[in-house]
Amino acid sequence: MSAPTFRFAPSPNGRLHLGHAYSALLNARLAARWSGRLLLRIEDIDPGRSRPDLVAALGDDLTWLGLRFDGPARRQSEHMAVYRANLDGLAARGLAYPCFCSRAEVGAAAGAAAGDGAIPRDPDGAPLYPGTCRHLSHGAIAGRLARSEPHTWRLAMDRALATAPGPHGFTAFDPDGAARTVAADPARWGDTVIARRDVPTSYHLAVVTDDAAQGITHVVRGADLLAATDLHVLLQALLGVGSPRYHHHALLLDAAGAKLAKSRGSQSLADLRAQGIAPEVLRARLGFA
């Protein structure tokens, strides 16, 4: 068997905070415990927010923490052709279709479809797509694409589940090595976006593609991504790639009980470094003395 392979996969759209440090250190601990490899992936599919200075800062923070990775980092921005090929393959099989709706239009259509009832939502809280564009004729789609109308690509969930009916599930593991099977329910994501308007992928399609390409056997990430795993195992089945084992660790919370986030201005590792905090002190604070 090949060595267990882990990955830490941050997005360079802000400075790393304590939550990132915890996840990176846990990946490193488990990789060392099981004589495995630890890879670094830079998830920079967002061209508007992924800045070169933040990529460099990310590397500085990880070096300061004392982390070392096996081999060069994988940059998602360098693999758009691979994501495009996987997207095109799904579309050719009738498993993905272009959607020309804006977010506002999706919300309005979902509300109209719900009538007086509550709007159905996906696990991230977004309105479930009511299928406005899924029944467009081939001619209508071709014309709108020829006019370069902005569009995303959505997974045709009913066709996807007919192609890979399951039952779906994944293997969850604990840091002590205990494993169990967890049932997955991809249908709760509905016809979710698998490619953005500006790039031929989404987080979901890219992460499944990358995990397969890098030979990832163990995914260690925050509990906020637990529900996404339901969708990922379906995409893995559709693309014909294996599923890693998963561990979703508890999130670090701020004083108000909210998860740490760049968008909320959570204290960054750079802030702590500027205060003179030593890396060994921070590692001990996070339980990695």
From TrEMBL:
UniProt keyword Plastid present: no
GO MF entry, a single one: ligase activity
UniProt keyword annotations, A-Z: Aminoacyl-tRNA synthetase, ATP-binding, Ligase, Metal-binding, Nucleotide-binding, Protein biosynthesis, Zinc
InterPro entries given in the database record: aa-tRNA-synth_I_CS (IPR001412), Glu/Gln-tRNA-synth (IPR000924), Glu/Gln-tRNA-synth_Ib_cat-dom (IPR020058), GluQ/Sye (IPR049940), Rossmann-like_a/b/a_fold (IPR014729)
EC main group: ligase
EC number, as in UniProt: 6.1.1.-
Signal peptide region: none
The keyword Transport is annotated on this UniProt entry: no
Superkingdom of origin organism: Bacteria
Domain Glutamyl/glutaminyl-tRNA synthetase class Ib catalytic, residue spans: 7-284
Similarity remark: Belongs to the class-I aminoacyl-tRNA synthetase family.
Family annotation (NCBIfam families): PRK05710.1-4
UniProt cross-references to PANTHER family, sorted A to Z: GLUTAMATE--TRNA LIGASE (PTHR43311), GLUTAMYL-Q TRNA(ASP) SYNTHETASE (PTHR43311:SF1)
Protein name per its UniProtKB record: tRNA glutamyl-Q(34) synthetase GluQRS
Species this protein is from: Methylobacterium adhaesivum
Phylogenetic placement of the source organism: Bacteria, Pseudomonadati, Pseudomonadota, Alphaproteobacteria, Hyphomicrobiales
Gene it is expressed from: gluQRS
